[in-house]
Design brief:
Chain lengths: ~500, ~100
């Protein structure tokens, strides 16, 4: 112990690539700036905090683009513990832009709701910073720290509406299950560290074999870690917090949790599976297979009987999570592991755009109807044609109808599992296909309300949509449609060679 | 070195913690059970660190201690919030939303 410390005392500062770290630095500075500005700004000018938050997120997006344009080499820091490759960059871009859209959704909602606080934006930025760090983390310690960094602000945001007992309940449920999940995950991490003596993912990858002397301990560690992230991505049977939290939290935060927080969980799962567990595929593949099948099926069946649109979207996001897990269940099967990685990345990007758009419409409509019931969408096309068409586009994309983005995402996922060419792949493809049809049923219910039904109480006053919300709707709709027509825009990212090549294996 | 003793203690603490999270209805007791799990993790990490003779595990444990403090801070403030609104911190009464 003393000897180890003495050896470590011979310290030289590691080289730091400031260009690659620029998004994190911009966000970190932005957090301080927003916090300080909120302190001094006048009550009447509080829109300033929200627009500055938006600018910070856009400023963080610039270095992501420049690093992506300049380098085809992988930038690695701290002995490969923090890696900026194409996989990390495309997901950083996703997190930053998703954060920007959530700021657009929030600006009017939070001020009208009468529970405005500047800390809201500080917490939102902190959570985005945690996600951006998660995309680059390649070490158990940094994965844990970024996971908590993105989760702890999210717990507070879910309970943001302090006086509403529903929001309290949402926050407490999310907090208790989230913390419990991360402690179980930590126990798994401690076991893996014990077996291998390292926390670096690439070294874990060569050391974990899931056979031999420590096979049982290794399998337990892998399973515990996957359970921890299954909570994060709300996979059945670890989903029980999701519907309640989504319903009780402020709607922009629901959008944030169902998209960005979920994507961050998947990012960590993907890096762990591809970098740390490649030789443990016998352990994680059947486990992920079961999680995926359960998520798709249970999420769908429960979504069918919901009458509240936010709860319906919550169960729909559980079932979409099952589809994102689907390719990971064959991630270790040689022929399909590259296709599986691409499928997950593409699905995450398209799902993010579509789901944020759906929530933007929900927020816009709720401004008028003050109701979350699906029946309140009756006659929407009659008095708000633009919102009606947009909601139809988003629902059709979630259902996977061509030529929208969601179709290409599902296509990639099915292609990956069929490429595996074994029983696991074929069986999950069949189950997924059945579920895709069931899912269409509840998305079509919403469309039917919009197009066929009359407006409830004959109230056909038009909806006034604020500019920020309009911008969010335009961004998400353009991305959803564009990625359906030109899927190669993101389809070329997420090369397996990049992700694993960065670790000197 | 008898690493088994530490690991056994860690496993027992972990099981007690999980049992507490599942059965307790009082929010503060659940928080304490979660702390037990986190401490079992720390114990594991320190024992393994000693076994391998490197400091990775010790560093990890330090991070866990710091983050756990932050987590409990948030958790207790949330418990305070529900106590103010409901005058009770029983978790089984937190069931406004269902389905």
């Amino acid at each position: 112990m003393i000897a180890a410390l003495r050896a470590a005392a011979d310290f030289t500062a590691p080289p730091i690539d400031y260009h690659a770290l620029a998004p994190e630095i911009v966000l970190g500075v932005g957090i301080c700036v927003v916090l300080l500005i909120d302190l001094f700004v006048d009550e009447r000018q509080r829109w300033i905090t929200s627009s500055i938050t938006g600018f910070v997120l856009l400023a963080a997006f610039i270095p992501v683009v420049t690093v992506g344009v300049i380098g085809d080499d992988v930038r690695s820091m701290f002995d490969g513990r923090y890696v900026i490759d194409e996989f990390a960059l495309v997901l950083k871009a996703l997190f930053v832009l998703a954060g920007y859209v959530v700021v657009l959704l929030s600006s009017d909602e939070i001020e009208d709701g009468g529970y405005y606080r500047g800390e809201y934006y500080v917490l939102l930025l902190s959570s985005v910073l945690g996600m951006v760090m998660m995309a680059s983390s390649r070490d158990l310690v940094s994965i844990f720290v970024s996971l908590e960094f993105l989760s702890i602000p999210a717990y507070m945001l879910a309970a943001w509406n302090k006086r509403s007992s529903k929001s309290n309940e949402a926050g407490v449920k999310y907090y208790l299950l989230g913390v419990f999940a991360s402690s179980v995950m930590l126990y798994g991490m401690s076991l893996l560290y014990g077996v291998t003596g390292t926390t670096l993912l690439s070294e874990l990858g060569t050391a974990i074999t899931a056979e031999g002397q420590f096979a049982g301990v290794e399998a337990l560690g892998v399973v515990f870690i996957i359970v921890g992230f299954a909570f994060k991505v709300s996979a059945v049977p670890f989903h029980s917090w999701a519907p309640d939290t989504y319903e009780g939290a402020p709607t922009p935060i629901t959008a944030f949790l169902s998209v960005a927080s979920k994507a961050a969980g998947f990012v960590a799962l993907v890096t762990l599976i591809y970098v740390a567990f490649p030789q443990a595929s016998d352990v994680y593949q059947p486990f992920v297979w079961v999680l995926s099948v359960l998520s798709m099926t249970v999420g769908n069946v429960l979504a069918l009987r919901q009458t509240n649109i936010v709860r319906m979207l919550a169960y729909s996001s559980i079932s979409q999570g099952g589809f994102i897990l689907m390719p990971l269940s064959v991630a270790g099967t040689g022929s399909s592991s590259e296709a599986a990685l691409k499928a997950v990345v593409v699905y995450l990007v398209i799902y993010a755009a579509t789901n944020l758009g759906a929530f933007a419409v929900v927020i816009a409509v709720a401004r008028k109807t003050r109701s979350g019931e699906i029946s309140s969408y009756g006659g929407l096309f009659g008095y708000a044609p633009a919102l009606g068409v947009l909601m139809t586009i988003f629902m059709a994309s979630l259902a996977g109808i061509p030529p929208l983005g969601g179709w290409f995402a599902k296509f990639g996922a099915f292609k990956a599992v069929l490429d595996a060419g074994n029983g696991w792949g074929y069986s999950i493809a069949v189950i997924g296909a059945v579920n895709a049809v069931i899912a269409a049923a509840y998305y079509v219910t919403v469309m039917r309300e919009i197009w066929m039904k009359p407006a409830p109480d004959g109230d056909v006053t038009p909806i006034r949509t604020p500019a920020a919300l309009q911008a969010a709707l335009v961004i998400t709709c353009v991305v959803t449609v564009l990625l359906g027509v030109l899927p190669d825009l993101v389809g070329r990212y997420g090369d397996l060679a990049d992700l694993t090549g960065a670790f000197g294996r | 070195m008898l690493i088994n003793n530490f690991l056994l203690l860690g496993a027992v603490l972990f099981c007690i913690g999980v049992y507490g999270v599942i059965t307790r209805k009082n929010a503060v007791m659940v928080l304490m059970s979660i702390e037990l799990i986190l401490n079992s993790v720390n114990l594991n990490l320190l024992a393994f660190s000693q076994l391998h003779g490197n400091v990775d595990g010790n560093t990890f444990a330090l991070y866990i201690i710091a983050v756990a403090a932050a987590e409990v801070g948030v958790g207790l403030s949330m418990v305070l919030l529900i106590y103010r609104n409901r005058k009770s911190i029983a978790l089984d009464e937190l069931s406004e939303m269902k389905g």
